[in-house]
Amino acid sequence: MKLTLKIWRQKNANTKGELKTYPIDGIEGDMSFLEMLDVLNEELINKGDEPVVFDHDCREGICGSCSLQINGEPHGPDRLVTTCQLHMRMFNDGDTIVIEPFRAKAFPVIKDLVVDRTSFERIQQAGGYISVNTSGNTIDANAIPVNKQDADDSFNAATCIGCGACVAACKNASAMLFTSAKVSQFALLPQGKVEATERVLNMVAQMDKEGFGNCTNTGACEIECPKGISLENIARMNREYLNASIKG
Ligand code: SF4
Ligand code: FES
Questions:
Q1: Beta partners for residue 146, in sequence order
Q2: Relative to the alpha carbon of 107, which ligand is closest?
Q3: What is d(CA 165, CA 3) in angstroms, rounded to the nearest whole number?
Q4: Phi-psi sector, 51: left (phi>0), alpha (psi -120 to 50), beta
Q5: Do residues 1 and 88 lie in contact, with contact meaning Cβ atoms separated by under 8 Å?
Q6: Which pLDDT tens digit goes with each residue over 169-212?
Q7: Residue of the nearest CA to atom 6 in ligand 1?
Q8: Ligand 2 pocket: which residues have CB below 6 Å?
Q9: Which one of 177, 182, 222, 236 would you pick to mutate in the ligand 1 pocket, going by the greatest count of ligand atoms within 8 A of its CB?
Q10: Could you tell me the pTM of the whole model?
Q11: pLDDT class for 236, splitting at 50, 70, 90?
Q12: What is the distance in A from the centroid of ligand 2 to the CA of 210?
């Protein structure tokens, strides 16, 4: 395939960026989107130009770092896949592909296509954990019965990889889907009940402090989430928050 790439280039957080055009040839349908960018970067390096900086790590859909806005959609046109799992067969010969970083005030651009998503880490640090007695008297986790549906729902919430596509898809740049997945993961389990009140209050407070917008129920986050995280998690977090506010 012969393609035209329009890629966001930005030197650093303090400079203005712009879309630059790069023609590319010899792209196979079986290549992943990141492999296509590898081909471009090899060409740029051979010409003595600066390669395009983009984030990646596992390249198998589990780390959440390969976050790109492709033709206006987080992780591109396929469903339930990350950018590293997106195949070039989703595009046609002659296509123009616009590649940008995820856009949100709470995700400032570091360079080119890489954004700073440490705001997500600070939300996690505000309450995305449980405290366990590890003094030697630790209770075997299997000794605490967990309802099968709750275990499944908790597991599904835990599959959130923190990629930020939900934020990038939302017109308000809301982080409700991410935060609610992290809250739900624990709220559904007996082990998470102990710190439930402070967890939801602290995580929501941190989310607001980071500058993410409000949820207006458009559902774009659920559609673009590569892990199929359900909007039910937002409803659950709202209930948790209400209960915690009454108690707290
Ligand atoms: S909820 Fe989905 S889109 Fe949002 S960070 Fe988690 S995996 Fe990514
Ligand atoms: S590189 Fe890890 S999810 Fe894509």
A1: none
A2: 1
A3: 25
A4: beta
A5: yes
A6: 999 999 999 999 999 999 999 999 999 999 999 999 999 999 99
A7: 160
A8: 56-59, 61-66, 82-84
A9: 177
A10: 0.96
A11: very high
A12: 24
Contact criterion met (CB below 8 Å) for 97 and 91: yes
Q: Which of 146, 174, 180 is nearest to 160 (CA)?
A: 180
Q: 6-38, pLDDT tens digit by residue?
A: 999 999 999 999 999 999 999 999 999 999 999
Q: How many residues does this entry show for the chain?
A: 248
Tell me the domains of the chain and their CATH numbers. Answer: 3-40+51-111 (3.10.20.30), 117-247 (1.10.1060.10)
Q: Which residues pair with 9 in a beta bridge?
A: 18
Residue with tokens 């770092």: 65
Band of residue 139 on the pLDDT scale cut at 50, 70, 90: confident
The rounded distance, in Å, linking the Cα atoms of 109 and 9 is: 10
Residue given tokens 């806005």 in the structure block:
69
Question: Hey, what are 229's tokens?
Answer: 């995280």
3-state secondary structure the chain: CCEEEEEEECCCCCCCCEEEEEEECCCCCCCEHHHHHHHHHHHHHHCCCCCCCCCCCCCCCCCCCCCCEECCEECCCCCCCCHHHCEHHHCCCCCEEEEECCCCCCCCEEECCEECCHHHHHHHHCCCCCCCCCCCCCCCHHHCCCCHHHHHHHHHHHCCCCCCHHHHHCCCCECHHHHHHHHHHHHCCHHHHCCHHHHHHHHHHHHHHCCCECCCCCCHHHHHCCCCCCCHHHHHHHHHHHHHHHHC
Distance from C-alpha of 210 to C-alpha of 233, rounded to nearest angstrom? 20
Residue 210 identity: E
